[in-house]
Design brief:
476 residues, alpha/beta, Aldehyde Dehydrogenase, Chain A, domain 1, Aldehyde Dehydrogenase, Chain A, domain 2, 2 domains
Amino acid sequence: MLDLMLESGIPAIGSLSVTSPFDGRELQQVATAGPDHVADALRAAYSGFRDRESWLSIPERIEILDRTAAIMSRQVDDLTMLAASEGGKPYSDSRVEVIRAIDGVRLCAESLRAHSGSVIPIGKTAATTGRIAFTQKEPIGVVVAVSAFNHPLNLIVHQVGPAVASACPVIVKPAADTPLSCLRFVEILREAGLPDSACQVIVTNDRDTAESLVTDSRVGFFSFIGSAAVGWMLRSKLAAGARCALEHGGAAPAILVDPFDTELAITSVLKGGFYHAGQVCVSTQRVFAPSSLAEAFASELAKRAEALVVGAPEDAATEVGPLIRAKEVDRVAEWVDEAVAAGTELICGGKKISESCYAPTVLLNPPDDVRVSTMEIFGPVVCVYAYDNIDAAIQQANALPVAFQASIFSKDTDASMRLYKRLDASAIMINEHTAFRDDVMPFAGLRESGLGVGGIPYTMEDMQIDKMMVVKSPEL
């Protein structure tokens, strides 16, 4: 049974069976934590933060991160199989995730090398002459990171890596469905030389235990990836002074503006909509197409979607894997059935393949008020809407309380620029699907979709403070 809690002598309160989302087989047993483990982890993390003499130097942190990336690079196949088995993302996509995670660790080290304070332009008035001022970076404090299931290694890297780089002691709670990649990553950090108290893992599916960890007064920064309901609730309970970043979901729109490259748009939407069975916070969910082209676009998209190989995530041929839980398959089926009953044209899919898999589905012209149009599906479903007026399409795209990333497909540069200015999103992709991301980019949900800016350099900025020094001298 895996147990990576701090060596405190406190016995685990129980164990968690981690199972395959595809066929339900048990992968491993993981020790689970209770209130005493939370108290012990917070004590160790906060003691480490308060003891400034124990802070790892920048060269030490860079060396640990470099060694971590090197160890991971030697274990790509094992890390890929672990992530695919517990999370359900197909092997080929999980391998991309692992390689990206390794690059993310390297980016933490590179960002740390380049991260610096700034010179403050004082001395420009009579009252400030003879003085200089500058800032340097210091860790903000203890970081608590609560993560999601859908990228079980890379999301952990995004939350833990910047904390390690910033010298913030971090306590990470992975999703109960997918703790194994997190546990392995923390093992690797320790193999690379990171002190145990600098990164600890709390595995629990007990909400009270998790809440006590997040809301403790010793927490300096809270990083959350998951549902909006939980994230905003926890934010409301943070201790005074604690900062946070929340990353929730969306219902990403893509707008096709004639003339556009049909093949490019089809292949992009296919990837953006069905990648990881749609279980991505910026998955392409709503496609707006000119009325004269919408049906043909939906039909061709459906033809490609029907050809996708649905199956076991460990199989190299699989293109679409399972949903994370059987109840999510039932929920997606319910939402699609509701839309069809309300007059939506079902172009393909619309059925459960098994208890764990739902057929890639394309819907044409769902009503504005059904759930596939108003809420994040988080499943392998793409909705195509015909529009006669581009302004009406923009209005519909902007109508939801969530806003994250969006796409425009067009060969008309002026039209693309016009939509860029008018779409509610933190990032607009031109001729690229909504789920495109590089870890050096800012990544920010707007409105109910989140708070703060992700992306490794931006997260490092959040996890540090700018500490200023003012020097007075008659020689200045």
